[in-house]
Design brief:
Two copies of one chain form a homodimer. In chain A, the strands form four sheets. In chain A, strands 6-5-9-10-11-12 form a six-stranded mixed sheet, with helices on both faces. In chain A, strands 1-2 form a two-stranded antiparallel sheet. Chain A has a two-stranded antiparallel sheet with strand order 3-4. Chain A is about 35% helix and about 25% strand. The first copy, chain A, is built from eight helices and twelve strands. The model of chain A has no long low-confidence stretch (mean pLDDT about 95). By secondary structure, chain A is an alpha/beta fold. The first copy, chain A, has two domains: about 70 residues, Arc Repressor Mutant, subunit A (Orthogonal Bundle), CATH 1.10.10.10; about 190 residues, Rossmann fold. In chain A, helix 2 crosses helix 3 and helix 6 packs across helix 7. In chain A, strand 9, helix 8 and strand 10 form a beta-alpha-beta unit. Chain A is globular, with a radius of gyration of 21 Å. At the A-B interface, helix 1, helix 3, helix 6, helix 7 and strand 6 of A face helix 1, helix 3, helix 6, helix 7 and strand 6 of B.
Amino acid sequence: MKLRRSERIVAITKILIDKPYRLFSLNHFTQKFDAAKSTISEDLSIIKRVLAAEDMGQIETISGAAGGVRFIPKKTAGDIEEVVTDLCQDLSDSDRILPGGFLYITDLIFSPETVMEIGKIFATQFAELDADYVITIETKGIPIALATARAMNLPVISIRKDNRVTEGSVVSINYVTGSSKKIETMSLSRRALSEESKVVIVDDFMKAGGTAKGMLDLLSEFKAEVLDIGVLMETAQPEKKLVSNYTSLIVVDKVDEEKQQVVVRPSNSILGKSD
Amino acid sequence: MKLRRSERIVAITKILIDKPYRLFSLNHFTQKFDAAKSTISEDLSIIKRVLAAEDMGQIETISGAAGGVRFIPKKTAGDIEEVVTDLCQDLSDSDRILPGGFLYITDLIFSPETVMEIGKIFATQFAELDADYVITIETKGIPIALATARAMNLPVISIRKDNRVTEGSVVSINYVTGSSKKIETMSLSRRALSEESKVVIVDDFMKAGGTAKGMLDLLSEFKAEVLDIGVLMETAQPEKKLVSNYTSLIVVDKVDEEKQQVVVRPSNSILGKSD
């Protein structure tokens, strides 16, 4: 079917947005819509202009024979602040306090709309790093990693917390959790990650950073280069973590079981302020 | 900024597609774009017509005061067959055979593009069921559940395979895995699922169906109504599973470690053929 401009624009917008970071050649669209290159170029410049003006992400054009056009989800600083502030408000609910002073966050992490927003924030943070993989550790890191990876068009690799893994030979390390000083095991299938890959790490929570430190140690067995670490939440204490370069979205200052009080705030690093 | 039709259409398409199943009132758009109701209605009917003609999903209009418009991702039978056939081809690679006759599928499940397609297939399958939650069990079920839930705008609930769960009081059951006859534990936090919810289950793999049976037992403790079960892959043997109503996308006929041979095929149920 031969489409008019406004019709073609619907279909092209859908195609680009459905597959973030996927490069489509101009030929893909000229053939699909039986339209001239100049026509498609004009369609694309309208889409690009509107998405930019409405802060809905970026259309990037790459010229040359291997070139094409792709959609890059980007959140503005204002958007990020809004999402993180909303999350903080939700997390401040004292009903979230669990026995032992833990905070119930599973519902947020497993809400697709919420976690997709979190993923887009990390994707914005990692946009210029040219990573090959998004790495996480089961279980609650997985939805965040998948959302981040979807916004970056990268595969996820999930480190296992045991070694009962039916994935061929695995590399395992023992690590000491920074907060409870327990010895745990984490494993990664040899075939999951090729050597000397460039990776970013995401996880849900950082207390002392023992798990993150363990992930760095395990990844060094694969000679991976870790470009950045993103965590949804970190605790204010201990201030000095076992890893140094990471970005958190939210800082947990206090979970007081007795007073039924939760104090959380947007992290300075994500708001672009220096700590 | 006052937009022209082709420009408005880009923004409206983006808003609808980004949040499947989310109902947007017409007022949302008339205010955002400072346009008359009739103008927005016409924009929407163009978007609806194009998405339908290009098999890109459905725009549903719900009339009345609480009404509005929403995007429903739907895959056609032809699309589903294509995705499943491609998956089968990928899975037939003898490099996927792991010691013990297991099949390596982690890379597919953790590839956002692939798992989002799988999620849209299950969302199409479950579209009319009016479920409240998508339920899965860690670890490899999680990406599939999240992709399905994203296409349906539903929360995911992930059952844990241990009971070292920091989520308040949990309900745990012991279950016998149908194939290896081992006793395992699965747990779900009491607060995760309200009683008498309507749910659909998704998982990556079904052999004898012991895990699925365990999930049904655990969910019955929450008085949940299980509307359907979807699994990415099932083994042809044993033919009789411990659960009866489920849909699989792919059937594994044989993984022969000695001959280095994998035989998989699209499931009859997903192709609309009776077994």
